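Attaching the record inline, Q. Sequence:
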Amino acid sequence: MPQSNALKRRIVLIRRPVGSPTSEDFCMETHSVPQPDAGQVLLRTLYLSLDPYMRGRMSDNPSHAAPVAIGDVMVGATVSRVQASGNPSFEVGDLVQGYSGWHDYCVSDGKGLARLERNDPHPARALGVLGMPGFTAYMGLLL
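Structure, as predicted:
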C-alpha cells in the first residue's frame, strides 16, 4: 500500500476540445492517495484503455453517453491491482477491470469491477481483444 504521504496523479478535462483534443484541453493534478473506508478498495491503475468513444465524452453534444464534466477526471476502462481492501469481495493483490478513469490511484466501492485471473501474464487484454473494443469488432463480424 502506498505511504500515507504518497501522491496520486489524475488527468482532468479543463475545456471542451475544438477539433482534435490537445494537451491544452487537460491538466494533471496531484492529490494525496486516498485510503479506502469500509466496503471500499484502493486501486492502482496498471493499464488504461484509450478508445475512440472518449472523444464524444469530451463534448457536450447529445450522445449515448454522458459528457465528462469540466474539472472531472477523464473516463476510461482500466486494469488495476487492489492495493488495500475494506471490501470483503476483494483481496489485496487482486487484478480487476473497471472504469476507474485517468488516474493512477482511486477508491472504489467495488461495483462494476470484474475480477481477472490474479496471475494473468497479459491482463491488458481485458481492455483490448477481450474488452469492449474486441467485443465491438466481434459483433461487427456477426452483423
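The chain has a mean pLDDT of 90. The domain at 7-142 is CATH 3.90.180.10 (Quinone Oxidoreductase; Chain A, domain 1).

More tomorrow.
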